[in-house]
Records
---
Amino acid sequence: MKIILKVIDKKCLPKVAELVEIMWYKGVNVSRVGEEDSLIKGTSLSLSWDKWLDDERWKGHSKFKEYIYFEIEYTNSEQKLSIEVDENACFVDIRAVHRAAEYISERCNSLISMDKGEWIQLSEYRSIVGGYTKTSFSDAVQQSLSDI
């Protein structure tokens, strides 16, 4: 699954700690490839919640780790931020992607594309993904564990 946001100025992009708090919660154990200000600098970033460190129920599960990739793309004098996760990611990780996209779009006043063709406003995006973004973290974890 890939979501793309039009970003006019990279300075509006969040630092990693702020993004992690929005996606999961403050203090969660994450693996990171990239610097605290990777997005602002225009470099790529990968984040993964280390589920088994925070919740023993994830030990031994196939979805105990899922990387979410952030990359700045430059095309036709436009800057776009892509956020990508495996199509078969569990609910809690898909929720994290949608929460990141929603937060960044609001913060940067960005249009969003979920299919590479149509650009939509944040309000329309929220109506499409509300089932993910409105779910609490604990409920998303429970649903993910039930689905596995």
Note: The beta strands are 2-7, 30-33, 45-49, 68-75, 78-84, 112-113.
---
Amino acid sequence: MEDTDQRMSGMFDLDPGPPPAPPQPVGIYGWRKRCLYASVLVLLISVVLNLALTIWILRVLNFPLDGMGTLQVNPSGFSLRGEAEFLKTVYVEKLQSEREKPLYILSDNKVQLTTSDKNGTENSQFVIDENSIEATCDIFHVKDLNNKTQMLLNGSKVTLGFPDVGFPGSLTIKDSVKVPSVFGHDGKPLV
């Protein structure tokens, strides 16, 4: 029977032995934990400061949600309220001022308006320089507010749309002139 007891006690070891060690804590403790919290706090402060400065810059520079400053994006294009400075060439389909307000175009050098065809070939040009205004085109047409022709210039002919033409000085004509009547200024002779 002793044999059986020994076998049984070997099979069912009832002696618990030494107690198990307490479980090791999982995580970061001590100075590592403090450094991690400090770095997260510094990162949070920098994110908040960055957002605050971004909002401040947007407010100071007047950037609304529908454009940039005085430049607003509309369904029909762009609308600029105020002054703008263009550093390079500007291409526009339509340029107009607000109702009952003048449109100012200021240039240190010259203002040049150019039209071109679909191939990019320049057709007509209007240049306002420091001392001159120059128009390069096939037909130059000047109309009054009633849409009546005042002057028409084409390659070979000048047409004036008013009955009286006066010249304050002398006029020299090399070829012939066809007119219905010629008279002197203030009743003075033509010679």
Note: The mean pLDDT is 80.
---
Amino acid sequence: MIFDFITTNKEILENPIIKGFFSMEEHAHLLQNSEKEPDYNISLLNERFKNYYTNVKRINYMSKLIRGIAIDYDKKSRKYSNRFILTDSFNNDEPSMEHTDLSLSDNLDSLITNRNLLKAIKSLTPKQINILEMYFIHSKNNLEIAEYYNTTPQNVSQIRKKTIKKLQNSISKGGKE
């Protein structure tokens, strides 16, 4: 009877879940003993398979969940590092830039460790450097910077974004050389 079951259901027994189930010695033993006490062993085998299948589904769900969370974390991490490319390049052991009398353009060598970034910043106009300094170092918002330059916050935002894009392009070109 068992031999007939195995030969007629070869395709089913090749299924990875079924293979995994019967690879456990206890389950294979229950299948072999199903001839002696068919009702008890088959119902026990069915119950064990339901538990096994439920566990496989849980593990599958958890691994997909963990993978999805890891992908989301990686996306957020890359987004953060791309968004704050300038702040990641400053030395953390340097004194804070609380004093407004310190100018970014005067202290570039001591603040920035990335040589490509330093070279790219030196190619900016004084206004671009000042806007970045006010925004990133002195934590001024677009409105405050706009009032200083007597322009609109939208213009300040546009200048800042174009400047950052210019820096990113310069850094990526400098790193490939």
Note: Residues 89-102 have pLDDT under 50 and may be disordered.
---
Amino acid sequence: MEKRNDHELVEQISKSDYKAFDELYFRHWNHLLKIAIKKIGDEDDALDVVQELFTEFWDRRGKFTIEKSVGTYLVSSLYYKIFMLFRKKGIEEKHIKNYTSFIDGVESSLPYEFAEAGAAHTEMISVVAATIDQMPEKMRAIFDLKHKQSLKIPEIAQTLGISPQTVKNQLSNAMTKLRTATQGQVPGVGTYMFLLWLSNLS
């Protein structure tokens, strides 16, 4: 039997095909778990986050479409899940401290948790995933090395044979594209905080 691509699997999942869900799950599980462990630093929490991501993906089957890369959509969803984990636990790590002052005074304006955002969450993640897919090749490569492989700026520069300043410029331009693309998404403050967190991940 010919191997089905990710979009074919998503189409079958929308029809409650659990075998298709299993295939997508095992195709992406390990990669997502590795990212989660690197970002969170705790394997148990990472397992919980990835499992919750796939549980919600199944529960919301048929209620959303993924026009671009399914892999990018899942990674973008994972970023948001990790962000909400840190926010829920109140972890004051380096990448959280960068916007602690921003959170003060606006917490009450966040009406929904991530899992309750429903269509707004799906739309925001879809926009983020599509924007990443549409980035110029070099920009996308740098963004992936930074956020999918957790390389530091000097490591990215060495890997690609470019200057650290070029890496910084490309990452800055990538975040500008993401902020522009997600303007007007709901909830606005939550989207901004997520992108701010993403831009400061180390």
Note: The chain has eleven helices and no strands.
